[in-house]
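Researcher: Let's run the pair from yesterday's discussion. Sequence first, then tokens, for each.
Model: Starting with the first of the pair.
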Amino acid sequence: MASRRGVENETPRKETREKKKKDELRLAPQARSSPSRTTARAYTARSRIIYNKHQKGNAEISRKGDREHKAKGKENDRPTGVNVLCGVGVLSTPYAVKQGGWLGLIILALLAVLAWYTGILLKRCLDSKEGLETYPDIGHAAFGTTGRIVISVILYMELFNIGNIFIGPNVSLQACCIEYLILESDNLSKLFPNAHLTIGTFTINAHILFAILTTLIVMPTTWLRDLSCLSFISAGGVIASIVIVACLFWVGLVDHIEAKDEGTALNLPGIPIAVGLYGYCYSGHGVFPNIYSSMKKRSQFPAVIFTCIALSTVLFAGAAIMGYIMFGESTESQFTLNLPSNLVASKIAVWTTVITAENVAEAVDSIIDKLKKSDVSNVVYFDGWEGLGVSAVLRAVAERLTLGQITDPELSMDQFGSRFIQQKLEVASADDREKIFPEILTNAIALTTDVFGNYVIQKFFEFATESQLSQLADQLRGHFLQLSFQMYGCRVVQKVIDVVDLERKISIVGELKNSVLRCISDQNGNHVIQKCIECVPEDHIPFVIEDILQKIYPLCTHQYGCRVIQRVLEHCHNPATQSAVMDEIVERAFDLTEDKFGNYVVQHVLEHGRPEERSSIIQKLSGQVVNLSQQKYASNVVEKCLSFGTPDEREGLIREIVSSGQTFQGLMKDQFGNYVVQRILQTCDDKFLVVILSSIKMHLNELKNYTFGKHIVARVEKLIITGENRVRMGSKTSQCQQSLSCTDVDANPF
């Protein structure tokens, strides 16, 4: 019966296919003899079938195969949908707020609603007629072959000219993938020029190695037959976007980048730019038909699209608001350019951005345009270079140019041009540096505050002659205070202080007089003050030290001031200065230990201070060690006390902690205290190690049930099993054996 039903079900399908073939054969002669409407429709239908097969390739599968792919479920479509929307456009949303003002965010909301509503209309279009699965299909249904051609041309122009790279069904990506491989190879080999792979006597250089690795990662995605299969790869794109935005929030909320006061409610001249940037965020709309075609339950498409657009819009709006609040009118075209490079979160964001596809043509055109504007057009022939990768262009230029032939300062403000000039400065002759120096000198201020130009200035300071150093320093004179507060300018100020002679160093620091505390409290200026303390003798900067000594405790508890206090302890050797700072630290040791930033100052003294200074702090904390061990910041200080205290001081601390009875058991389970217990196991003497291990051993099974207790279990098992413990449990004196027989930690072996 089962086989019979199968035959019965299959018969109508065969009859339908045979009928279609007969219709095509019946209409074919008419197509040659009489261009009637029926003939045109038949010809168009046949053309559409052929076109779809050609365009869709592996993605156009049989109905049976389609059902098999859709049977995997629609749950995978949400991350895919979010991925096609959340791309590099999120990096420019703060800049869009800068251009359009706060009210410009209404445009983002309107575009989100428009994207969702047009998605619903798209579903209706695809359901209106059988066989409609792509935008070209809709164009054909509405306007015939002309509509299909126009829509296809637009989609391919977007793919190849605009540079939005999407790897999935219905898109032929051979050329685009090659461009992407060149991009990744060029940029990664620039970042890691020494990378290579040696197989026997054969060595693969960085350029080829990264091209191969990128191919191995990217190319398999072009063979996927269904968009739902792509969701696992799409999840990587979603995660990358979320990571970048999360890093932005981390820098603002955790690393405490101070908010900017400036900001406009509405900037009408910048609205067109804002519209373009916000609109780019939703440019993945063109892939919605692919998502719809790959869904198991197409009726849920509106909910899927709503979820995708809602999540993406929240991500866009969050990045836009946080980025503009943090950077204000200094917001760059991509917020990653504003992130302080010294922060871990900033580095994560930038590296995550590096792995995102960028438009090679834009970068190449930029550098070529700048080179054409310079005076080297008679030396370099540019025609035909637009198809090369960035590194290829730079290498070609490098072979034909000397540093002295580059006279346009705008090249220094280009990402790739800046890197090119820096490389040239390292190998250039003194004569070539002298030729470019007038342009550097004239534009010193502009280059110093530029995201890429500041690196050129810093590099020039490294290789400049004494005369050039003096002239550059004089050019910046009167601007050092202002530059100290600027994200890129502060780096140049630090470099100048590092390389100029003492007389000029004193002159530079003099410009900061009456603004020392203001600099210390600034995210950029504090680095300049630290450099001053490191490079200028204390007796030449008395006003800096005086201002610091008046605010020792407030600075110790400040996120930037605590760094400056540590530099004072390291580089200011005047007994009066050291005494004043240390007296305040010891006096307020307990409060500083519990403070979010003050604990770093106490840790610094414990690790680098004199023995008497360490002893004073440990004595100040004695009696409260158990309580401090259970606090997030103070527990780090307790660990330092155990690591750097004298044996007698360490013994006293361990006695205080272990003899606390039930509290000691609580420490082993505590999220912070467990680290203190681990430190005790690392630093205690043999006689204490046996007793402590015996006390802990009684509670190993219980500790395994606690998240943080497992850390103690792992440490103890490592000591016992691998033999890392300094004493063997079975080879102790009778005193140790008696200690091992303890059945309860409350017995207090101390």
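Model: Moving on to the second of the pair.
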Amino acid sequence: MRIKTSNGVIINVDKPKNSITVEGVEFGSDCRALVSKHRNGTGTITLVFEGKII
């Protein structure tokens, strides 16, 4: 799924490759994406980062 936000940021989630890219920056295995498509042509991507609070 590829979304262009209201601020113009492009977020790309490639599920087969396990790849999440935000403005050209690719996130590694510590990040997951929950993706949902809506009937009106919009969508929601929720990024979940795993780690310790520092």
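Researcher: Give me one sentence on the second I can quote.
Model: Residues 2-53 form one domain.
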